[in-house]
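Q: Could you fold this chain for me?
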Amino acid sequence: MRIRQQVVVFDAADLGAESSFWAGVLGGSVEADDDWHMVQTDGEVRLAVQLAPDHVPPRWPDGSPQQIHLDLWVDDVDEAHDEVMSLGATLLRAAEETDEPDAFQVYADPAGHPFCLCWVKKRD
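A: Sure. Below is the predicted structure, expressed as structure tokens.
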């Protein structure tokens, strides 16, 4: 089997809010139909949003099944944090101080899907 393209699809009750959020995060645009939105960057589909009028946001970390999440690796976590928050994200868990070489913070998109901003810690 040869897979020519892979698209992650989020369910959401509000297609506009969800697809606009991810288009903003990914620096892309939205191609909208009545019940399906494609988020594209540089002419390539990055993800899609499907209308699910009865969508119930997952509760993270110990509630309803998580369903899916994305890890987005960034160079500047402060800048990325400000950007996703301005686009409508909710911070679910701030980074913890550890001795690990990388870190992450957990957010929810407008439909409640968790995603992480991840980064490699700067060395002193």
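A (continued): The first strand starts at residue 8 and ends at 12.
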